[in-house]
Each structure stands twice: as structure tokens, then as C-alpha cells.
């Protein structure tokens, strides 16, 4: 992690500020909460004391009833009930106070109800005691004593409840005192922590602001130093708005000294002026669009300017960056770069010219090596640790080695001569090669060579040192020794070759010619005379003479092509008509080339009579037109025939069904069987006609081809065959299939037929399973019987576990109306697989079948990638 970047980042301090504010708010809220808790603890302590005082009042109240003085006081005031009423009201007031104070204590609230009842009972008993005192009977003393006992018991019960309440309140008082003490001591600490934290944030903020101020000063000083020492023009502009609030210009706010160095503009003078007014890099509002774009979109804009100052051309590369309320423009003087580019371009052109010359020289050298009869080889020496040459590596061999040894130059290149020419070490040639290198002088030697025909050839070789290798030029000198014999044999061969050539020209209807451009004289072969209807040498051939044979309608085109050939010195093959001596029209095709012969430019070429070929092509075109017309007629016939054939079938089916509906009850069993066979035959005939129409409509045009995802095709077919798949419990497993160029509905028909067949020809003892496998294969993996027109193919294999078939019927099943089973065993027309084959061939593919009877069947589809 880059801690320096994290420390200096403005975002870091913004985050820290937010965290500090949050901590301050949290601490403040905690302190406030602590104060409120302390206040609440104090209030609870006071509340407990109030309850405690109320219980004390209660104690005083019922203690009064224990004393005889209080009771006698009540008796003294027997004429007035004021004392008793005041005493009763005092008790009720105590109960009301307690009820109000203990609202937050469920336990104490439960004790108030029996306490209230006891007080009321006490008051009633005291009242009854007063009544007893007024009686003069003899039983008054006993009743009074009994009444006092009841009062004492009531007082004891009140005291018991009061004591329990007092005990609970003492416990609460102790707990609340502890809580109050805790909060009272914690509150100052929290305030102290908050004070220290605020002080810490203040100190950190102060030092950060102070450090930033120092950095800003250093940055300003550094920026001034950079702007003073930089080689780039650095300016800052602010936009000037027009009446419509659109930017019409920029005001120069800052300009460094490089404006003076490069453009001759004083920074102090141009600051405050507008860009369009004084700045040469922006002379029009259209050139100002880069600045406007950068300012509005807040993006960087880079562009180039070429200006001329005092007759000197200068290039500048400008970088415009949106900054604050304006744009910062940095201009780099790219004059040196552009001049370097021009020099580099000039140098590149020179290098290209040199490379072309080198390639020409290389081509020339290659042509020389190909044209000479010498064998030219170059070897690099291989030395051992002591520096002694022990072998050679083949670096170059020209093509002339092949007829002699049968070796191909590229095959023996970079190999050792001990591997490819081991006889070199036994014939003394190795020593000659070593001497040429070690002594640095050319070595000539002759060496015999037993060729593959068993005869001996003599070669004269010259070995010349080149670097740490040797170049050997070998010339066959066997012919020099037999030169005379060869001349005789050569003449005989020439005579034979001329005879063969004449016969070949006559058979192929070809003639050759030589045309000397400087004189216009031509030489033509004997067969050329005969092709024109003349005997050999019957007329003096020339270009003008030959023009007389050209058909008048083709003469202009012939002259045009001839003029172009003379201008470009390049002959193009062309065909034209001529009129023979007998007046017949023949079609000639001419081709040739220009060569130098004895320092003279001549044209050599051949002329072929292609009349039969052209006539055959015309016949073929006519046949194709006739075939197209017949195909159109056949398609029309298919439409009419299908309608005419299906119409009576539909009527037969309709009337048969009506008879069956109305007269079925009157049929005998035999009649029902016959009638069922009639309906099945009609349905089968309809199916045959529909399949024949489907077969005939599969065309071979590619204009409907599109990108087809076979995965989507399979999903569509599975949806269409849902009922068949569900009823047969068929399991279909498929690989991820490719996308191909094809016709979607034909691919759907192909998948439907293959999957339907697999379901139809299932075994009764096993659940049907169809596996569709896919792999991309090269053309070499296709069967040998298949003609391969593409390098790669999609291989899609449909494998089932059905009844299969014998492999001997693998070709037969793709023929129309071919079935391997009786129609009573399996339904169908015998056209489904024929349609599959036609669809696959329509997509330039191939389909083959492989089967094992009672095991499985495989249909393999190859489609081009």
C-alpha cells in the first residue's frame, strides 16, 4: 500500500474530518446521555425518599391508633365527629400519596390495595369502639376488649405491610444511590474526555492547515521556478461570454516567459488581453473550439499547430486542461520533433530505396543461381575445442543439386555434410575445403561422382573462403569430354522435338509465332498457316497481313488490345474471331510475351483455335436454360399434381369417414377390417404426397442462409415433439451445439426427422435414450468416400438405443421410399431420411449412418465450419 499517497491525499483528510465530527457527535451525545442518566438517578433517589417519607407518615398515622390517649381523645369528642374525620382523611391522604409515588413499582402497587382495605377497616373499628363506649350494658367491657384486640390485629397487619414496603424502598434507595454515585463520577470524566478529544481535533487540524499552508507556499515557489525554467509555454485563460451567454473568446490571465522566447510576445503585455486578439496559435473562432470543448466538457484536449514567425516555420503541440474557472494551456515546441520526423521520413525513403535495390539484387542473384547450370553451395565451418575444422554446416545450396542427388535444398539446409554428403570425407573434397579456409586462397579441383543412374559424372569445383566458411561452385565437365557426340545427338533431338511439336500443335489446334517489332516481320508455325486455311509458307506473314484475317466486328477491340500490349509491353490473353481463306469463322485465343532476342525486342506467343470450346459453352448455356425451364415446369407440375392428387384423397377420406360414422353398426367384422385398411391407405397416400412435396421444395440456393444456433433449433424441436417424447419417456442428452450458416426451418426439419426416427424405432424392453454429441473435426477425419471441400467441419452425432439396422443398409436408408421394415410394423413413408440427406447436402455437408441390429443406430452429420 502507498502510505505516502494515502497521507497526502485530500480525500483522506476529508474522511478523517467526517470521522472526527462523527466521533465528536457520538461523544457529545454520550455525555448528554450520561448527564440525563445522572439526573434520572438523582430523581429516582428523591422519589425513593418521598416514598420512604410517606411510609413514615403512614407509621405515625397508625401508631396514633395504638395509644389510649388518642382513643380517649376520640371518645371525648363523641359529640363531634371532626377529630375522627380528620384522622380518616389523613390516612386516605397518605394512601393517595403512596399510590401516586409507587406507580413505577408493580410489587408496591400490589400492596397498596390490602393496605387501603386495612386502613378502612381500622377506621371502622375505631368508629365502632366509640359506639361501644356509649353503651351502659354489662357486656360493654367485654365488647370493648374484643374490639381493641381487633384493632391491634389490624394495626399489626398494617405494620407488617408497611415494613415490607419500607424494606423494598430501602433496597431501592441503596441501589439508586449506587447508580447515582456511579453516574455522578462518570459524567465529569466524560466531559474531560470530550474536552481532550476536541482539543486533539483542534491541534491536528491546526497543524494540518499549517502544514498545507507551508506546502502551498513551497508549491507556489516550485511552480514559479518550473514556469520560469520550463521550455514549454504555459498560459491560463478565463472565458469571455457574449450576449447569448456563449463563449466568444478567452482572456489571458497568466502567461510565462516562454511566450517571449518562442513567439516574441511579452507576458506582461498580453496578460489581460484576449486570445483571438494577440495569440498566434488561435487566430480564428474555429481554432478556439478546442479551448471551448475542454472548458465545457472538463476534459483534456490535445492538438497541433503549425505557425510561421519571422519566416520560420514552427510546430507546437498543445495540451488544454480545464482548471478552476478557466483552462490551462501547455504548449510544447515540437519543431525539433517534426524536423526529426522529416529527416526520419527522408532516411526511411532512402532505406526503402536501398532495400528495394537490395531485394532487386537478391532477386537478381536468385535468378542467376536458378539460371546457371552450376551447383553453388556455401558451408560454415564447425571447429572443435582446439579450433580445428572437423565438419561443415550447409548454409546454402541452389536448386541444381536436386537433379543430381535428389536432395531438396530446404531439406538439407542447416545440416552437417557428414550427414548429407558423407562421401566428402573419402574423396579428398573435405581437405580441399579446409585448405581454402586455412590458407585463404581459392582451390580448384575435379572430383568424380557416381549418380543415381550408376554412371560416373565429372565435376570441376572452385572453393573460395568467405568469412569462416567456404563457397563452392561446381560445374559438370562430363559434357566437355563428349561435346562432339552431344552436338550430333542434340541435332537429332531437335529434329525429333520439332516433329513432335508440329504434331502436338496439329492435335491441339495450336500455332506459334514470333513478331519482330522493329521490322514488323513475323514468323509463324506450319500449323498456324493451316489454322488460317493456307498451306505452310503460302504467304509472307506480318502484323498487317494477319489483321486482314480478323473479323470486322472484332477488329477495333483487337487493335485496342494490341496497342495496349505495345504500350505496356505486357500481353493479356484474349479471344477473337477470324475469317479463314475458305471464309469460315473460327475463334482464336492468343497469348504471349515480350523478350529480347539478339538485342531486339520481339514478341513470342501461341494461338489456339477454341471454336469447339466456345460452341460447347454456348451449348452448355443453352442446356442450362432448358434445364431451368424444365425445373420450373416440374415445380409447377408438383404444385398442380399435389393438389389434384390430394383432392380425390380428401374426398375418399371424407366419404369414408361419413360412411363409417353412419353405417359402422351395419358392417360385418370383415367389412370393418377392410374399411380400416382403406382409411389407413388414404392417410398413408396423403403422408407420401406431403413428404414428396417437402422433398421437392428443398432447394440448393444459399441466399436464405443466416446464422443459426443449433441449441435453439433443438429446443424448438423438443417443444414440438413434447407429446411423443413424454408418451415414450424418451431421454434426450445433448452437448453444447454450434452456430452455423444455414436455413433455420431446414435445420429444424433435419433434427425433427432424426429424433422422430429414434423415438419411432425404439426397443420395447428399454427406455428410449437419444444422445447428441458435438465436436469440431478437420477434413482428414471425414470418411474417405466423402469429398472434402472445407478444412474443418462440425461433427454432430445422433445416437439412440433402438432397434438399429444392419450396416449393409447404411446407404440404402437414405434413398426415397426405401424402408427396412414392413409398413405394418412401423409407420412412415420412407422419405424422412432422404429429406435429411438433401438438407445436409444443401448446406454443403455430409450425412452417414452406422448401425448395429438390435443395439443402436448412429446418424453422423458433417457441416462445414
TrEMBL record:
Native organism taxonomy: Bacteria, Pseudomonadati, Bacteroidota, Flavobacteriia, Flavobacteriales
Reactions the enzyme catalyzes: ATP + protein L-histidine = ADP + protein N-phospho-L-histidine
InterPro entries linked: HATPase_C_sf, HATPase_dom, His_kinase_dom, HisK_dim/P_dom, HisK_dim/P_sf, PAS, PAS-like_dom_sf, PAS_fold_3
Transmembrane helix keyword on record: yes
E.C. number(s) listed in UniProt: 2.7.13.3
Family matches, as SUPFAM superfamilies: ATPase domain of HSP90 chaperone/DNA topoisomerase II/histidine kinase, Homodimeric domain of signal transducing histidine kinase, PYP-like sensor domain (PAS domain)
Domain PAS residue range list: 521-569
GO function term, MF aspect, one: phosphorelay sensor kinase activity
Domain Histidine kinase: start-end pairs: 640-865
Record NCBIfam families: sensory_box
Name listed for the protein in its UniProt record: histidine kinase
Organism of derivation: Mariniflexile fucanivorans
Residues annotated as transmembrane: 12-32, 190-210
Amino acid at each position: 500500500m502507498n502510505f505516502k499517497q494515502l497521507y497526502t491525499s485530500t480525500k483522506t483528510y476529508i474522511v478523517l474530518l467526517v470521522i472526527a465530527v462523527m466521533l465528536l457527535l457520538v461523544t457529545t451525545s454520550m455525555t448528554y446521555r450520561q448527564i440525563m442518566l445522572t439526573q434520572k438517578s438523582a430523581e429516582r433517589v428523591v422519589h425513593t425518599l418521598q416514598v420512604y417519607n410517606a411510609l413514615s407518615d403512614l407509621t405515625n398515622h397508625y401508631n396514633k391508633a395504638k395509644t389510649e390517649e388518642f382513643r380517649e381523645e376520640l371518645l371525648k369528642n363523641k359529640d363531634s365527629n371532626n377529630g375522627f374525620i380528620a384522622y380518616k382523611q389523613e390516612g386516605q391522604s397518605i394512601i393517595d400519596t403512596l399510590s401516586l409515588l409507587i406507580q413505577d413499582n408493580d410489587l408496591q402497587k400490589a400492596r397498596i390495595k390490602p393496605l387501603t382495605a386495612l386502613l378502612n377497616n381500622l377506621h371502622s373499628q375505631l368508629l365502632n369502639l366509640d359506639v361501644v363506649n356509649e353503651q351502659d350494658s354489662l357486656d360493654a367491657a367485654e365488647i370493648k376488649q374484643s374490639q381493641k384486640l381487633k384493632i391491634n390485629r389490624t394495626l399489626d397487619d398494617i405494620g407488617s405491610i408497611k415494613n415490607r414496603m419500607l424494606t423494598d424502598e430501602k433496597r431501592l434507595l441503596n441501589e439508586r444511590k449506587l447508580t447515582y454515585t456511579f453516574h455522578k463520577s462518570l459524567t465529569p470524566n466524560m466531559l474531560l474526555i470530550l474536552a481532550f478529544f476536541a482539543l486533539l481535533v483542534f491541534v491536528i487540524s491546526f497543524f494540518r492547515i499549517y502544514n498545507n499552508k507551508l506546502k502551498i507556499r513551497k508549491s507556489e515557489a516550485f511552480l514559479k521556478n518550473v514556469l520560469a525554467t520550463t521550455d514549454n509555454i504555459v498560459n491560463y485563460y478565463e472565458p469571455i461570454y457574449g450576449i447569448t451567454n456563449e463563449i466568444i473568446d478567452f482572456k489571458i490571465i497568466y502567461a510565462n516567459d516562454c511566450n517571449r522566447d518562442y513567439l516574441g510576445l511579452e507576458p506582461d503585455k498580453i496578460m489581460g488581453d484576449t486570445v483571438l486578439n494577440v495569440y498566434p496559435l488561435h487566430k480564428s473562432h474555429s481554432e478556439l473550439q478546442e479551448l471551448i470543448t475542454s472548458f465545457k466538457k472538463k476534459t483534456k484536449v490535445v492538438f497541433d499547430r503549425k505557425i510561421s514567425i519571422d519566416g520560420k516555420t514552427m510546430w507546437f503541440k498543445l495540451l488544454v486542461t480545464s482548471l478552476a474557472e478557466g483552462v490551462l494551456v501547455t504548449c510544447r515546441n515540437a519543431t525539433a520533433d517534426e524536423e526529426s520526423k522529416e529527416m526520419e521520413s527522408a532516411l526511411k525513403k532512402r532505406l526503402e530505396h536501398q532495400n528495394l535495390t537490395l531485394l532487386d539484387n537478391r532477386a537478381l542473384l536468385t535468378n542467376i543461381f536458378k539460371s546457371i547450370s552450376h551447383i553453388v553451395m556455401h558451408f560454415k565451418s564447425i571447429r572443435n575445442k582446439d579450433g580445428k575444422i572437423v565438419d561443415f554446416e550447409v548454409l546454402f545450396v541452389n536448386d541444381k543439386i536436386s537433379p543430381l542427388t535428389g536432395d531438396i535444398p530446404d531439406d538439407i539446409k542447416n545440416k552437417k555434410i557428414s550427414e548429407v554428403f558423407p562421401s566428402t570425407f573419402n574423396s579428398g573434397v573435405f581437405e580441399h575445403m579446409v585448405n581454402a579456409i586455412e590458407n585463404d586462397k581459392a582451390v580448384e579441383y575435379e572430383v568424380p561422382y557416381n549418380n543415381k543412374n550408376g554412371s560416373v559424372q565429372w565435376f570441376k569445383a572452385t572453393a573460395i573462403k568467405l568469412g569462416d566458411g567456404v563457397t563452392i561452385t561446381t560445374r559438370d565437365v562430363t559434357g566437355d569430354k563428349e561435346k562432339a557426340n552431344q552436338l550430333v545427338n542434340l541435332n537429332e533431338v531437335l529434329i525429333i522435338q520439332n516433329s513432335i511439336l508440329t504434331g502436338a500443335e496439329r492435335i491441339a489446334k495450336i500455332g506459334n509465332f514470333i513478331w519482330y517489332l522493329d521490322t514488323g516481320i513475323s514468323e509463324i508455325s506450319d500449323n498456324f498457316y493451316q489454322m488460317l486455311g493456307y498451306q505452310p509458307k503460302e504467304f509472307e506473314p506480318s502484323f498487317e497481313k494477319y489483321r486482314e484475317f480478323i473479323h470486322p466486328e472484332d477488329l477495333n477491340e483487337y487493335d485496342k488490345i494490341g496497342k495496349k500490349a505495345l504500350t505496356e509491353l505486357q500481353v493479356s490473353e484474349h479471344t477473337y474471331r477470324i475469317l479463314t481463306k475458305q471464309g469460315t469463322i473460327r475463334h482464336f485465343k492468343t497469348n504471349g510475351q515480350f523478350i529480347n532476342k539478339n538485342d531486339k525486342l520481339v514478341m513470342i506467343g501461341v494461338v489456339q483455335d477454341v471454336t469447339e470450346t466456345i460452341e460447347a459453352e454456348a451449348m452448355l448455356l443453352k442446356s442450362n436454360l432448358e434445364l431451368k425451364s424444365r425445373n420450373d415446369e416440374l415445380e409447377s407440375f408438383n404444385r398442380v399434381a399435389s393438389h389434384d392428387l390430394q383432392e380425390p384423397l380428401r374426398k375418399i377420406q371424407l366419404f369414408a369417414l361419413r360412411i363409417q360414422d353412419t353405417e359402422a353398426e351395419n358392417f360385418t367384422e370383415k367389412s370393418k377390417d377392410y374399411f380400416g385398411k382403406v382409411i389407413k391407405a388414404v392417410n398413408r397416400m396423403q403422408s407420401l404426397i406431403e413428404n414428396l412435396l417437402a422433398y421437392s421444395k428443398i432447394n440448393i440456393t444459399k441466399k436464405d442462409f443466416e446464422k443459426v444456433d443449433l441449441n435453439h433449433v433443438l429446443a424448438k424441436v423438443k417443444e414440438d415433439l413434447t407429446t411423443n417424447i413424454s408418451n415414450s419417456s424418451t431421454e434426450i442428452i445433448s452437448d453444447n451445439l454450434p452456430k452455423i450458416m444455414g436455413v433455420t426451418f431446414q435445420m429444424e426439419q433435419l433434427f425433427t426427422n432424426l429424433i422422430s426416427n429414434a423415438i419411432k424405432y425404439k426397443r420395447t424392453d428399454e427406455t428410449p435414450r437419444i444422445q447428441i454429441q458435438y465436436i469440431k473435426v478437420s477434413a482428414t477425419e471425414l470418411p474417405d468416400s466423402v469429398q472434402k471441400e472445407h478444412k474443418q467441419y462440425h461433427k454432430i452425432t445422433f445416437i439412440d438405443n433402438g432397434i438399429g439396422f444392419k450396416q449393409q443398409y447404411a446407404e440404402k436408408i437414405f434413398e426415397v421410399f426405401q424402408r427396412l421394415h414392413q409398413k405394418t410394423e412401423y409407420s412412415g413413408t420412407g422419405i424422412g431420411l432422404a429429406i435429411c440427406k438433401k438438407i445436409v447436402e444443401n448446406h454443403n455437408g455430409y450425412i452417414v449412418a452406422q448401425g448395429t441390429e438390435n443395439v443402436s443406430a448412429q446418424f453422423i452429420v458433417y457441416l462445414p465450419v
